Amino acid sequence: MAIPNSLLWAVDIFGRVYTLSTAGQYWELCKDRQLEFKRVSAVKHCCWGIACDHQVYAYIFSSDVPIRYQEETYENQRWNPVGGFCEKLMPSDRWQWSDVSGLKHQQLDSFTLPSPHWEWESDWYVDENIGGEPTEKGGWTYAIDFPATYAKDKKWNSCVRRRRWIRYRRYKSRDTWAKISSHDDPKQLPDPFNDISIGGWEITDEPMGRLSVWAVSLQGRVWYREDVCHHNPEGSSWSLIATPGEAVQISCGPYDLLWATLWEGQAIVREGIDRNNPQGISWTIVEPPSSENGILHVSVGVNVVWAVTKDRKVWFRRGVNSHNPCGTSWIEMVGEMMMVNVGLNDQVWGIGCEDRAVYFRQGVTPSELSGKTWKAIVSGRESDRSQTGSSTSLLSAGCFFSDDVREQMSLIVQSDADISSDTESPQIHPNLADTPLSDAAATINGNNGGSQSAEASANAAVDPLDSAPEEASPASDNGEKAGLEKPESSADQDPHPAELQWTNIDLKEAHKKPLLSASTFPETSSLSSLGMFSVGVEEHYGADEHPLWAWVCGGGCLVDSHSSLKWFTLQSGLLSSVQSLSLSISPAQTTAWRKQIFQQLSERTKRELENFRHYEQAIEQSVWVKTGTLQWWRSWKPHKWTDVRVALEQFTGNDGMRDSILFIYYMFHEEKKYLHVFLNEVTILVEVLNDAKHSFALYTPERTKQRWPIRLAATTEQEMHDWLALLSMSCCESRRIQGPPSHQAIWSITCKGDVFVSEPSPELEAAPHLMPCDQMFWRQIGGHLRLIECNSHGIVWGIGYDHTAWVYTGGYGGGFIQGLASSADNIYMQSDVKCVYIYENQRWNPVTGYSNRTFHTSNYNAKGAEEEVKGDLPAMPSLSVVSDWYIDFNISGGTDREGWQYAADFPTSYHGHKTMKDFVRRRRWARKCKIITSGPWLEVPPISLWDIAIIPSSAADTEESIALWAVSDKGDVLCRLGVTQQNPAGTSWLHVGTDQPFISVSIGAFHQVWAVARDGSTFYRGSVSPQKPAGDCWYHIPSPPKQKLKQVSVGRTSMLAVDKNGNLWYRQGITPSYPQGSSWDHVSNNIRKVSVGPLDQVWVIADKVQGSHSLSCGTVCHRTGVQPLEPKGASWDYGIGGGWEHITVRGNATEAPKTALHETSEEHSAKPTDLEDGENGGKGNHSKTTLMVNEGQELERNSVNC
């Protein structure tokens, strides 16, 4: 199976493994049915289990991206005067074949596959790459002696040389249970295992996809599986971990929480687990809740521990966190369970003692980790549903076709009722049993039936004991725990109840009465109740009773308060048949029908208005006013927030045009003054990233030049969004912009993740009179993204901060933009996870060493990071914290083992190791926050992406399939197949092999594919075409001298790249016969991102752009003067900013007027360029420019960053 979004795993009492998707409603049997299992433990991409032979098995999901592991060895040679370089080495030298250190002997034939689950992908070959630069043919690197620093060039004193040989092996046992070896020594007997738990994926991301796998053997010993990661999914070996007693069961959380239970009934907690020591250091014993009944089972999450004692009572551990993994005390919870399991987001599942059903703990939130009530999962099995298809399909036909069929169906219903009468089936209401289907439906959907059903559903949804966790529930009369929310048995009810008899299902007694009428299923539509058809008749012939579960695992099941689950109501076969039949009406037929009605209405409107065309309007104009109170960041010093009154006046003229004016009334020296802004002059309204205020900025062309917008703040996020929505709609009305963006639109993203779009003008690129890009109007589209790419066929893809891929659905609006400003359909919920950072700074002093005491001139010391940032984060309904504070080790410059970076003083460049001259240090703390919003985006599962590129195409192109390339978050290069205008999401991924992880990819209009590796090296993919979408091989292109690239963008004939120091480079000499080009030419500095369009137009996100009032980082800039004879352009035109993170113009294929092509670059250079610092001293050649300011200039505090 391809990995789905989220799965709940379970094992029944017969050892069969099932999965239940969060998007589905049926348990699906695992494909590999040959094995019987006792227990399983799952994460998102894999599952480990203990089979009935007490051996460990791993189930790895299949994917379009293969699991590859790189084996390497080095060939070493020394030079001698007779034969030159040869294999004869000195006795003190390393082996001829060795590892990178030279200490280990590694011949080519000594490498073997670690298990039968691997296969060789290719033979050995030489790696012709060193430090991001290509070597000479043969891959040799030279040095004076072993060991030393190697270089690709041979010198007169090069006495030794070496080259690297690499070979890949591929993991082949996917979508099947692969047996994990118990011992490295095959002569030893396998150690029988009793329990297993996997977790720890949040401890560190080095190596990629690292997991902690813990197991308990029947002898009571605890084992840890070494080296389990993405590239080695089965690990390497088992390590024995000493314990204070014999262990029975173990549970591992996503972070550093690990608990186990002992035979004596105590629990032991592992302490000292971190990224440098994932096995931990020591054990601490935790006593059970009561001495009479020890702990039988335990399960842990991020900040929670649940336990089941030997008397089957459920307990919650209070006060558990990363600083106190043992917690403080036990709280008894309502209900009795065989076992419990904590999954993602600390959600809890359990298996009931009496009915063996799977229960879900409802109401678990970060503020209430213990939840509120247990609710049974009543989803059926896929095999059961398939056995009801033939009968229900005939029943559904009776609902849609003729009365004759309906009469026949009533006979079938009666006959089936006779067949099931021998068993204890629930009684059908006498007034409905003999009623025709249509009448039955009317009766059920009538006022009485509807109200009764609603009351019954409401009663069933209320937990009878929704009490505090400390209060234990007394047992009910029939011995059941009232806290287990289960529908009541119809046999126990009054013969003439007030509610319908089939509104509830008795799960506990299901093994006594397997025959359930279709009308007994709760919360189904009226169609599912039409036939009174007994599903139990079909189950009687093939399906057994409802499954009895032995184990459940939610470690790979992502559920939160926003999730909509279909697990708690049974759906009859009739409903699915009706839905499948209704799909026979194609969307094309529906669209044609709507268009016809719309056309008829339009024609009628024209006919009716034709006779009144010469009449004057009764009302010449109308005025509409909205007022409110906001805060304004005043424009004079000292700059501060001041209370203002805001009024928006909207008026309609004789021509029907609407325009609006925004007035801002403020006090200046006790005198009332005001600002006014015509909304038809506003170019953008954008939220501002402010720690203490819900603020937004309003730009006009003049204020864009100044880098000083109007900043307003509201008291709540909702009030800010109300004003933003109103002002945005007014701006769009003033410019008569409505509906979805065009295929030529320019997309951009702010550093806050907001998505904006602008409709390009033909005068934007090449015309006698260029339109300045600070006059472009940007409107917001719902969603939250980090990166976005598009082309002129309307294909738009985005990537979130959590690396989730999204495809554009064609809608508009979403988020806070509602009503008429948003499309009615194609708007979907979207979530993203973003990190909030804070730095902890320390200075060294001779007495105490590094401490929190700093000079008054030093940077702010983030002592007590958690308390400080808690005050800085405003309360946003769309933002929720999903992790605790943790040290971030993925920071530029590297860190030491504790996450510190060192430097001589504040502020300067930091490095990850301490030297004698380092007197200050810092480390970064991070916290993950989840954003819930909506927009015209659909998720493209399951592979997480880092970069994406879509082939730019002109308006004349009519290609059926559209080339789309991507780089995964693990560095794999992928090619998307099946992308068309009708199916922009495509069908599947095609993996393109590489020798190292990549970070950027781009494809040009003629299928020129360029990419950048993680080490900064550049590659060109040869022979890419529509017939051969993945090409054949990579060509290593030398990078600019002493620079490492980080991003590339390819247009029609131009290729530009940005290096890690912010320099923009143009690739010279690209021709159809030599597409790799010949050399690099420097264009500009202070560049963050570049986007080259289908007409070779160049747009960038630039840093340090100087305005008349302020300096801004993250500014949209347009390269003017780009012509076939001058592809690098002449100068920069500065647009919206700062605070912008990404821009793409790869959809703008609007051809400029032909007369514009004859213009020279003199008009462009006539623009004021006094802020540019050309390398040629202003002698008319502006091909090399510096953006705005010197490197040393400081940013002003008042610069607006969104």
UniProtKB/TrEMBL annotation:
The protein's predominant localisation is membrane
GO terms in the biological process aspect are: autophagosome maturation
CDD domains found in the cross-reference section = PH1_TECPR1
- Annotated region Disordered: the residues are 416-497, 1153-1202
Q: Which SUPFAM superfamilies does the protein's record reference?
A: PH domain-like
Basic and acidic residues compositional bias, start-end: 478-497, 1156-1170
Locations listed in the record: Cytoplasmic vesicle, Autophagosome membrane; Lysosome membrane
Which InterPro entries does the protein's record reference?
A: Beta-propeller_rpt_TECPR (IPR006624), Peroxin/Ferlin (IPR006614), PH-like_dom_sf (IPR011993), PH_domain (IPR001849), TECPR1-like_DysF (IPR010482), Tectonin_beta-prop (IPR051513)
Q: Which Gene3D superfamilies match?
A: Pleckstrin-homology domain (PH domain)/Phosphotyrosine-binding domain (PTB)
Q: Cellular component per GO?
A: autophagosome membrane; cytoplasmic vesicle; lysosomal membrane
Write out the coiled-coil annotation as residue ranges: none
Give the record's keywords alphabetically: Autophagy, Cytoplasmic vesicle, Lipid-binding, Lysosome, Membrane, Repeat
Which GO MF terms are attached to this record?
A: phosphatidylinositol-3-phosphate binding
Where composition is biased (Polar residues), the residues are 416-428, 444-456
What family, per the record? Belongs to the TECPR1 family.
By what name is this protein known? Answer: Tectonin beta-propeller repeat-containing protein 1
- The organism encoding this protein is Chelydra serpentina
Lineage, uppermost ranks: Eukaryota, Metazoa, Chordata, Craniata, Vertebrata
